[in-house]
Specification:
The protein has about 120 residues and is an all-beta fold. About 0% of the residues lie in helices and about 50% in strands. Strands 2, 4, 5, 6, 9, 10 and 11 form a seven-stranded mixed β-sheet that branches. It has a four-stranded antiparallel β-sheet with strand order 1-3-8-7, with no helix packed on it. Strand 7 and strand 8 form a beta hairpin.
Length: about 120
């Protein structure tokens, strides 16, 4: 079992920035960030391989977010810039212990955090 603990959500202004953090309790092969707004599907935003560091980004956030890792702390981070009102959602950290298909597909992840709310307002 891998437990994930997220932090860093909250409120921000349009055009502002937020940094989300996620700490894992055990081995992870890949970690990712997803979000889900009210009445919407869970959307893959970014993923990173904990070994080689390969990253993937979703089209809706590409160029505005950066995923990074700290292997010593078994943690990943999501730096979000140029925030838009449409970025308001619950953000989830996810972990996979082996490679399972497309890195931004939710089915590829076994473990999920409890979520952290991000609210962007003008």
């Amino acid at each position: 079992q891998v437990q994930l603990v997220e932090s860093g959500g909250g409120s921000a202004q349009v055009g502002g920035s937020l940094r989300l953090s996620c700490a894992a309790s055990g081995y992870t092969y890949r970690m990712g960030w997803f979000r889900q707004g009210p009445g919407k599907e869970r959307e893959g935003l970014a993923s990173i391989s904990m070994g080689g560091g390969a990253t993937y980004y979703g089209d809706t956030v590409k160029g505005r977010v950066t995923i990074s890792r700290d292997n010593a702390k078994n943690s990943v981070f999501l730096q979000m810039n140029s925030l838009e009102a449409e970025d308001s959602a619950m953000y989830y950290c996810a972990a996979a212990t082996r490679s399972m298909g497309w890195p931004l597909a939710k089915y590829g992840y076994t473990y999920w955090g409890q979520g952290t709310q991000v609210t962007v307002s003008s």
